[in-house]
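Handoff note, outgoing to incoming analyst
You'll be picking up this chain. Sequence as last confirmed:
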Amino acid sequence: MTSKLDPSVAPDTSQGPALLAVTAIFLFLALLCYTARMYVRIRVLHYPWWDDWIISVATLCAIVEWALVAAAVQHGFGRPHVDLSPAAIHAIERLVFFFIFMWGWAVTLVKISVSLMMLRIKNATPWRICLGILIAVQALAQTLNIVVSFLQCRPYYALWNPEITGAHCWSVVVRDAVVFTLSAIFVASDIICSLLPLWFIYQVPRPLFEKITFVALTSLGLLASAAALAKVVLLARVSSSDGGMWTEVSPVDLSVWTNVEECLGIAAASIPVLKPMLDRVLGRLGVRPQAYGTRELRGT
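Most recent structure output, in case you need it:
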């Protein structure tokens, strides 16, 4: 069977191009901040650490995720459900499954990277304990997310092809309970990781202008948390709908908020490392920056 669209479907009904355009913009922002971060860590400070390599894997996951969305759009993702053939729907559901898989790893690794960055900068015992617990909870939540994803149906590929004979899947009530529990954990850890850098800069003795600039930049993390909350609201609408995602919630909306969450997370995790570049820019603008301490940034 082919997964091509029905030729009678009008080409202007697809929201796929808009989805790809919007998500590409946010991905470009994330890649720009990530590239600048790695330039500072490798070329300027000559001291990449574990948080840098972990954010690198998260960025790779985001790129793969965008490629999966692009492939899904080729099969008709973004078109009304009624305009798609069964083969196209199965292909889209399969790609979306692995899209969610990559998203889970991307956002988890971003938060672990932020936690490690805080641990590198401030290595006091209370911080080690709190951040160690936070990292463990994040890793456990993502592990459970993967396990749950593959256990929802037997065989697991019935998730994207429910017409398989003899397939058994969880009830909607059980599935929603698990999904919302894991979503609550993800959102809570999002907010904590967003507030950690802000709380940290409040305690560090720095000039007021520098603190204000840092807070303004790292507030991207709070925007990422807001995107995560928006996504949960959309999931709630899907859960309460008889028609499901295809009739009550635009797949573009859900996918965009997912993309915004991870891409702003990557940007927010990278911006605090860009202080050497910020100092140079401020110097060119005539603002004399605080003497830069590589010891603090390296955590040595």
